[in-house]
Structures are given as C-alpha cells and as structure tokens.
Amino acid sequence: MADSHPLALAQRPRRLRRTASLRAMTEETVLRPADFIAPLFVVEGKAAPDPIASMPGVFRLNLSDLVKECRALAKLGVPAVALFPKLDAKLKDDEGTQALNEDTLVLRAVRAVKKALPELTVITDVALDPYTSHGHDGVLTPARDDVENDRTVALLGRMAVLQARAGVDLVAPSDMMDGRVGAIRRALDAAGFSGTGILAYSAKYNSAYYGPFRDAVGSAQAAGTRLLSKATYQMNPANRREALHEAALDDAEGADILMVKPAGPYLDIIRELRSATTKPIAAYQVSGEYAQIHAAAKLGWLDLARCRHESLIAIKRAGADLILTYFAKDMAAALR
Ligand code: PBG
Fold first, then answer.
1. What are phi and psi of 192, to 5 degrees?
2. Average per-residue pLDDT in the chain?
3. How far is the C-alpha of 132 from the C-alpha of 112, rounded, in Å?
C-alpha cells in the first residue's frame, strides 16, 4: 500500500507553520496602532455621548468628550483622527452655507483638539454633505437634477482654507468632484498654507456600505430618503481602470496621500493603486464594513476580535499604508 510511504517532496510549506515561533518569524504583514486613523463624529452642546444604533461602540461626541476621546486614542498610539460633524437640521440649507462659517462646529472641534493635543494629526473632510439640506456633497444645478461640479469646487477650496486656518494637518476631499484636488492645493497655497496636506479620496465608490454613516451625520434623513444617489460623482463599483485614472489625476494635482473607499470589498483597487504610485495609500474601512462584522458577532455567527483583526490585516496586506477604521481604538488596545 502506497499510503504509508512518504511523498518525495522537496517543498513542504507546512514546515514553516509547524510552531508558533516559526509562524511569527515568517509573518509578512503586521498591524500596529500607528497604521490607524480614527473617524470621530462631533455634535454641538453638552449632551452625553449619543450612540449610533447601526455602529455599536461609536458615539456622537460633544467637544469636551471629543477631546477626551482623542487623548485616549493618542495614549494608545493612534496618531490621527478624522472629524465629521453632525449638524442640527435647522442649520442645513440647499447651498451648505454653514460649511463656510468660520465658527462652524467642526472648526471649533479642530481648534479644541489641536490646543489639547498639538501632536495628534487632525484630518477634516472637505465635502458639503453634512451641511446641505439635500444631503449631496455639493451644490445643485439650477434644474436640481445633479451636483454642479465647478461651483462646488470653488466652495471646497474656501472650505479647505478655513480648515487649514483652524489648524488641521490634512484636508480630505471626499466629494469626487473633478479638479478639486488641484483647486484645493492652489487655494491653500494662495492663503499661505503650503504645509497643509491633502488626503484625497481618489477612488471613492458609489457604495451601499455608507448607510450607517449617513445615519450618523444625518445626510440620509436630510434628503428624506435612505436612497440618496451619488452615482453622478462617486465611482461605479464595477470599475477598476477608472480608479487608476482618478488616482493619476489626484496624484498629478498634488494629493499627498491617495485613498480607496470602501476598503474590504475593494482590495484589488488598493493593490492596483499601490503599484501605480509611490505616494502613501490610505483605505477607509467604512461604516457598513464595521456594522456587518458587529451584526454577525451579535448574532453569534462570527468572532468579533478575530474578524476585526483579519479584515484589517487584509487591507494592509493589499497595500494600504494607513487605514481609517471605526475599530481604531479597540485594535490599538488589542495590539498592546
Ligand atoms: C461623504 C462621506 C461619506 C463617508 C465619509 N464621507 C458617505 C457618503 O458618501 O455619503 C462614509 C464613511 C462611512 O461610511 O464610514 N462626504
């Protein structure tokens, strides 16, 4: 009987998986707290942290709780936060006027965080969706059937300058208008902020995974529908070559970091961009990716800690240097 005879194999990859120390020695990808950027939601007032139903463990924070959370993150070794304001519906209008108010919530938040933690990298979104009553990332055409590109880009440039003046380290255009990275770069330089960087959402897909985030900032309710379509500016999930095109444009227009969003379902895109540019690549593990892991864990169908780790190691292995994730704090704590 042949089955008792060893195979004459020169290659036995299992040799290096035999013991824990051999597995550790041959591990190719390692996560560390400095890989993460924590997205945080900010609200007005003194209210207690306000839980977001579809994002267990994520809260809308008032300014003083925000500063506390940033301090806790910094202590755990998380080097950066990305701030997202949730405005009172009363403050929203068609033109997103509050985005250009020098004292708008997110700018006060930036000043408070930078004052308390000057070393922490602070990132703000450059997009109009938290400010518009229709929930779109820009202003609408006269016929109200689309977002008007060039008028929106002009507003984004002004918004970025206000954020730079408040002290952010990186502005992050998440709107997907054409030409916005170049326009923001020029606006920042003209205002004396040549040191403020641009983290560009270069390949941002028209994804269904943003649902919980839209609840968190109220952009879905603002539109009166959960089916707000951003298909005329965010990318078609079917497209890969187009991501390379978008990234090449942002790279040439002066983006410092190129981002892919969502992350987990778009690992091929992260890998493509990693080989196409020498700049750092970021990936955004979005609200829906976080929600689905939590939901399955709550049902007892998946192991939360292991899936969390695996989802993030996959994103890093694909080629992301930086990962925006709602798991940032828990992961940093787990890695200690
Ligand atoms: C919009 C914006 C979105 C997210 C960040 N900025 C969603 C959208 O396009 O409506 C989503 C992030 C997430 O789902 O976690 N400027």
1. 90, 15
2. 95
3. 25
Considering only CA atoms, which residue is closest to atom 2 of ligand 1?
Answer: 174
Distance CA 327, CA 333 (A): 10
Active site residues: 204, 261
Q: Is the pLDDT of residue 20 over 70?
A: yes
Atom of ligand 1 nearest to the CA of 207: 9
Checking if the pLDDT of 155 tops 50, the result is: yes
pLDDT > 90: percent of the chain: 91
Domains and CATH numbers, the chain: 29-335 (3.20.20.70)
How does residue 218 score in pLDDT terms, banded at 50, 70 and 90?
confident
Q: Which residue CA neighbors atom 11 of ligand 1 most closely?
A: 210
- Alpha-carbon distance 316 to 30, whole Å? 8
Per-residue model confidence as pLDDT tens digits over 278-310: 999 999 999 999 999 999 999 999 999 999 999
